[in-house]
Specification:
InterPro entries: DEATH-like_dom_sf (IPR011029), Death_dom (IPR000488). It contains 7 helices and no strands. By secondary structure, it is mainly α. The chain has a single domain, classed as Death Domain, Fas.
């Protein structure tokens, strides 16, 4: 698309604001539909994010080989993290995701995730 980067974000702009859902909570953030929204905003730092979420390099490499599009790779990484997590507390999982996003330089997305989850 004209004016769009390979990553799906308009050139020259910060990441667009993610859509807000009418019923937002921790479960909203951890669902596949939200992961798709989030994946569209995550850039090349997705591998670093996966590592900070506890995935190993072999898992990242497998996702890279298996998925065709950048967004599919990012969604697969988020799903794998969620499925491998031993934490049953959804709020703690959201906080873990936010911490990892912030440590990758994506505090903007961490703020969006917190807002969507209703975490202050």
């Amino acid at each position: 698309m004209p004016g769009m980067s390979e990553e799906g974000v308009e050139s020259g702009n910060q990441s667009p604001v993610m859509p807000r859902r009418s019923t937002c909570n921790e479960s909203t953030v951890l669902c596949d539909l939200y992961f798709s929204d989030l994946a569209e905003q995550i850039g090349a730092e997705w591998t670093q994010l996966g590592i900070r979420l506890g995935l190993n390099q072999a898992a990242i490499d497998h996702i890279t080989e298996d998925k065709l599009t950048a967004v599919d790779r990012r969604v697969a990484m988020l799903q794998l993290w969620k499925n491998r997590s031993s934490c049953s507390d959804k709020r703690k999982m959201v906080e873990e995701l936010c911490k990892a996003l912030s440590s990758c330089g994506r505090g903007d997305l961490a703020g969006d995730v917190k807002e969507t989850a209703g975490i202050s």
